[in-house]
Amino acid sequence: MKLLSSLNIFQRGLETHLFKKFLRNFIFCITICVLIVFLAEFVELLRRTSENPNITSIFYVIYLALLKITESIAFIIPIGFFVTTMWTCRSFNKHREMVIIQNTGLHSFRILYPFIFFTILFCAIYFVILNPMFSHATNSYQKIEQEVFRGKLSKTSISKSGIWLRQGSENNKIVIKSANFIPEKSLFKDATFFIFTKKNTFTERIDVESARLEENFWILKKATINKPNKKVVKIDEYTLKTNLSIKKIEDSFLDPQSLSIWKIPSFIELLKESGFSATKHQIYLYKTIFLPLYLIGLILIAGSFTIKFTKTNTKKYFLILMGAVTGFLIHVLSETIYSLGIANKLPFWNVLVASIAPSFITILIGGFLVIHFERTN
Question: How far is Cα 149 from Cα 152, in angstroms, rounded to an integer?
Fold first, then answer.
């Protein structure tokens, strides 16, 4: 805190005091939220692992729960900032400290300034340190979940060398490599199918000019079939059974939360080059980049309902309730816009509107409410 004073970030000792109070309350609030989520995930994982004979250690379940809570961080952070702001402002009003603060000539925006500065500081740490850590943990959990809980499912990966798919059945395993994908035709260009037995013994290789994915079947055009110790066979059209679909393939790509925001741009380029939709990853990236604006908007909304001193408990609890309801509605609106964007249901500028609009709407509503309560009180 001495560093903050030496940098003259806060012009008064009062602002430093507000910053320290907000920091303590935020740490406490986030800790409580994380513990609640951890306990919920731990109980759920205990139930799921009880059916799995390969998992017997309680410490491994704890490890999985710690990995899984990182998926909820994006949900916990806004709640933490909103609740902390309401709690901090209300605690200053409890003993009429806020009345004294406002009598010094500070208006509401200035009182909330230390909270906003903390938000910017937190987001900088989140982007540089926390997000890469949480994304790595989320990625680790998703890999474990796929292998331990879901069994051997079809897997998909994408890299500069092309698109790699894997499908499994009762009889064999097939690894598929394709140079490119044409989504309009569900067509994979210049593909190679490597077929193995369940015991990983290679049985044949099929090189095709194109492979079209139909329901339960691959339709292979101009196929060249190579089997060990047998002559090469060329066929104009060949069919293979499959349990894959375009939706399954797209869903099996890395979830945006399992990628650091520093790695998402290159992954988006790979998706586009391969012909797959990158909308979900683009929206997540921009949404994360504009997270500071969204959090500042939540601080303004929460502060506007609790920063002013109220003479009666009825009005105090009414304002707290209205603040909570407003915060909940903002969250619902944001998630609705986000979901519509992923589904490509927005009428124009789908990616930008879905990722940026919630932040700007929140900060505009927050600013309006702060000015409104400043004038009416």
Answer: 9
Domain count, the chain: 2
Q: Could you tell me if 196 and 299 lie in one domain? A: no
Q: What is the DSSP string of 45-113?
A: HHHHHTT-TT---HHHHHHHHHHHGGGGHHHHHHHHHHHHHHHHHHHHHHTTHHHHHHHTT--HHHHHH
Considering the domain architecture, whether residues 130 and 161 belong to the same structural domain is answered as no
Give the span between the Cα atoms of 161 and 181, in whole angstroms: 13
What H or E segment, with its residue span, contains residue 30? helix 13-49
Helical (H) or strand (E) element with 285: helix 279-289
- Indicate if 140 and 30 belong to the same structural domain: yes
The two three-digit tokens of residue 65, written as one number: 């729960």
The tokens describing 193, both together, are: 């199918």
Q: Tell me which residue range forms the domain holding 22.
A: 2-149+275-376
Contact 114, 328 (CB under 8 A): no
* pLDDT tens digits for range 316-344: 889 899 999 999 999 999 989 988 888 88
Residues 128 and 177 in one domain: no
Rounded to an integer, the average pLDDT of 158-180 is 79
Report the alpha-carbon distance of residue 115 to residue 81 in Å, rounded.
9
User: In this model, does residue 146 exceed pLDDT 80?
Assistant: no
Residue 106: band (very low, low, confident or very high) from pLDDT cuts 50, 70, 90 = confident
Q: Is residue 67 part of a domain?
A: yes
Strand-pairing partners, residue 197, are 172
- Please give the average per-residue pLDDT across 85-112, as a whole number: 79
Within a domain: 354: yes
Choose the weakest-confidence range: 241-245, 249-253, 258-262: 249-253
Same domain, 145 and 169: no
In a domain, 288, yes or no: yes
Res 83: pLDDT: 95
Is the residue at 140 inside a domain? yes
List, in sequence order, every beta strand (DSSP E) within the chain.
155-159, 162-168, 172-182, 187-197, 202-214, 217-226, 233-241
The residues near 209 (Cβ < 8 Å, ≥ 6 apart) are: 189, 190, 221, 222
